[in-house]
Amino acid sequence: MNLVIALDCEMVGSGNRSILAKVSVVDEDGRALLNCFVKPTDTVTDYRSSVHRITARDLEDGESFDNVQRKVAELLKGRILVGHSLDFDLGVLNLPHPEHNKRDFAKTRMFMQNGLPRSLKDLAREHLNKNIQEGHHDSLEDARTCMELYKKFDKYW
């Protein structure tokens, strides 16, 4: 069993809150353990398609939230979780994860600038010489990028 996984989610707007639209989880080799759209749990008022290109059609064909939440919870058990702004991702999944098992690039001082989080896009460019989020965000690409960053700096933790 892989001990480290990376997670990223895409969200859509429902009133003044975000709800889960897509979730991606990768293993240490960047292989997708889960990569799926999620049926909305509430009325979508803003698809945010300009950010991640997710449409109503994508979500209609998605998996149920409960099913996805169960799958992610199972993947999280006993593992180190890597990501960028993990509290947002875990929040829309409504899942806890122990702080000592999180590796969050948005909260780790070494990756911040003037005490503020830097974007994953900037971190990828600087530390991996890689351009991501060109035109849109993709949760699978972002999860893989987080894993690459983690593997480069795993000794830091």
From TrEMBL:
UniProt cross-references to CDD domains, sorted A to Z: REX4_like (cd06144)
Gene Ontology molecular function: 3'-5' exonuclease activity; nucleic acid binding
Keyword Hydrolase: yes
InterPro entries assigned to the protein according to its UniProt record, in alphabetical order: REX4_DEDDh_dom (IPR037431), REXO1/3/4-like (IPR047021), Ribonucl_H (IPR013520), RNaseH-like_sf (IPR012337), RNaseH_sf (IPR036397)
GO biological process: rRNA processing
Entry keyword Nuclease: yes
Function: Exoribonuclease involved in ribosome biosynthesis. Involved in the processing of ITS1, the internal transcribed spacer localized between the 18S and 5.8S rRNAs.
Entry superkingdom: Eukaryota
Keyword annotations from UniProtKB, A to Z: Exonuclease, Hydrolase, Nuclease, Nucleus, rRNA processing
UniProt xrefs under Pfam families: RNase_T
Protein name: RNA exonuclease 4
Major localisation: nucleus
UniProt-annotated location(s): Nucleus
Species for this entry: Danaus chrysippus
GO cellular component annotations of the record: nucleus
